[in-house]
Amino acid sequence: MEISQTNDQRHFLFQDELQPGDHFGGTCLLDGGTRQATARAVTSMRLLAFSAKDFHVMVDHFSSLRQVLKESSLRYQKGEEK
After folding, report:
1. 63-77 and 52-61 are packed helices; what angle lies between their axes, rounded to 10 degrees?
2. Which of 15, 18, 21, 47 could be bridged to 4 by S-S, CB 3.0 to 4.6 A?
3. Helices (H), the chain
């Protein structure tokens, strides 16, 4: 899975490759914001997808998951993760 982001002028900002077990899309679901990046499959893969409603039920039930996703998002935004 390739993750990339461009700015408003469509200038390339970053590109990263996710590995098995990585996740994406949680930040906008947690904070109610908009999608921040584009995900593109570069190989055959299986994904586990949640509707926004199911995602919120899951993180409401598992508060530790919510915390892990928030921390991961903050590290990524600071450039501490690849």
Report:
1. 110
2. 15
3. 26-31, 52-61, 63-77
Instruction: Give the HSE-up count for residue 2: Cα atoms under 13 Å, Cβ half-sphere.
Output: 9
What are 41's two structure tokens?
A: 């499959």
Residue 82, pLDDT > 50, answer no
* b/e per residue 18-41 (b: at least 16 CB within 10 A): eeeeeebbbbebeeeeeeebeeee
How far apart are the C-alpha atoms of 16 and 61, rounded to whole Å? 30
pTM of the full structure:
0.64
Question: Which tokens is 69 given?
Answer: 């996703």
